[in-house]
Amino acid sequence: MAKGTILIIDDEEQLRKLMGRLLALEGYQVLEAANGRNAHRLLEREEVQVILSDVKLPDANGVEMVAELRHKYPETEIIVLTAYGNIPDGVQAIRNGAFDYITKGDDNNRIIPLVSKAMDKALLQFRVKALEKKISGKYGFDNIIGQSPEIKSAIALAQKVAATDVTVLLLGETGAGKEVFAQSIHQGNERRTQPFVAVNCSAIGKELLESELFGYKAGAFTGANKDRTGFLEEANKGTIFLDEIGEMPMELQAKLLRVLETREFYKVGDAKPVKVDIRIIAATNRNLEAEIEAGHFRADLFYRLSSFTIKLPSLNERRKDIPTLAAYFMATLSPKLNKRVEAMSEPFLTALQHHHWKGNIRELRNVIERAIILAEGATLEPVDLPIDFHWEQHPGAGSSFKLADVEKQHIIKTLQHTKGNKTKAAELLDIGLTTLYNKIKEYNIHA
């Protein structure tokens, strides 16, 4: 397997062939070009990691060509071949972006080690580029699923604000996809190659949030044995996403306001300010204006955060997208669960469409995952859905027996799936183990 691809550009055929054989013996794939024009044609067709180029070419100046090639192929490294004693050309080539230069006929022992170093650097740059492309594809706006007018309107607003550094406030119910939007906004900005740090303000205790957010100096409190970098500093040059901002304590809101106004803050226990260059995206499922009235949220912070507000629709407001989202989750989760599930029956889809989604997209994903685990065939059926879906399909006072019957069958099927393992069955059913034992006794289930 080739260690990488090298392009040799030189009008001296004998030298090209000699260097080519030498590099091929080292395990590299070697391409050759006698002039700049042929080199450009090859580079348009082939992915090249390292270029070895003569300074004097029939149709180009190798030193000037370095700058052009580095602009067009920034991940590719270039080593310039200079004539004996022509050091200025080599120096200028490095200024133009060349990796290094070697003198023809005088640096033969340097060629292999130099090419090896240039190849290592280039391969790393190609891997970084591929990773950035993968991340961009994963979190870009194209990855937000849905064609309903409500979601398309939210995407259009997010795309417009993404290119700026304006602070964004995302409003929406829990599970509506606020972090996905925040990631997409980050990827649509020049900061995309810099850190994206997500902080859930409701998941960190009030006592810990300040030190986690701002960091602290050694000795600031008991247990602070060494300096700690906070989330704000980790996000420097990039984006920090403050989810559930409505849960942030009032005293920390004042400190966050200072960050928004001055782009600096103090670590816990430190008298020296830390400057940061960050973009802030915040999100909440609360009505912040009502929180202001109740004295739980600062009005000045709200006005700074809400420079640009985007309201994300709940899943109940975009029911048109439910089949598409369900199909996506089915296709992505089935292989991970080692199940061959390829379709959803019409009654199954109808049940999804009529369900009231309190947990939004997150709940839908969990329902599909659970259904795939319980499915006995390649098609998801209503029997694979949780109990409350069946209650929604058969409401009314006369339905108690039907509901009990459905619940009994669902428990039996779950126990069959777990091969009688009651602990796993209770986890899948999302009930306590004691409750499961009571249900088994109540319905006289032999497990």
Side by side, the strands of the main sheet go: 2-1-3-6-7
Specify the structural class. Answer: alpha/beta
Radius of gyration: 31 Å
User: Which shape, going by the Cα principal axes?
Assistant: extended
Question: Low-confidence runs (pLDDT<50, min 5 residues)?
Answer: 394-401
Please provide the count of β strands.
Answer: 18
The fraction of residues in strands falls at 5-15%
> How many strands, which pairing sense, and closed or not: the largest β-sheet?
5 strands, parallel
Give the % helix: 40-55%
Nearest-integer average pLDDT: 88
Distance between the termini: 56 Å
The count of helical stretches stands at: 19
Question: Concise description?
Answer:
With 447 residues, this protein is an alpha/beta fold. Helix content is 49%, strand content 15%.
Entry keywords:
447 residues, alpha/beta, 5-stranded parallel β-sheet, 15% strand
Give an overview of the whole structure.
This protein is 49% helix and 15% strand. By secondary structure, the chain is α/β, with parallel strands linked by helices. The strands form 6 sheets. Strands 2-1-3-6-7 form a 5-stranded parallel β-sheet, sandwiched between helices. Strands 9-12-15-8-16 form a 5-stranded parallel β-sheet. A two-stranded antiparallel ribbon has the order 4-5. A hairpin with a 2-residue loop joins β4 (56-57) and β5. It starts with a strand and ends in a 5-residue tail after the last helix. Mean pLDDT is 88; it is low at 394-401.
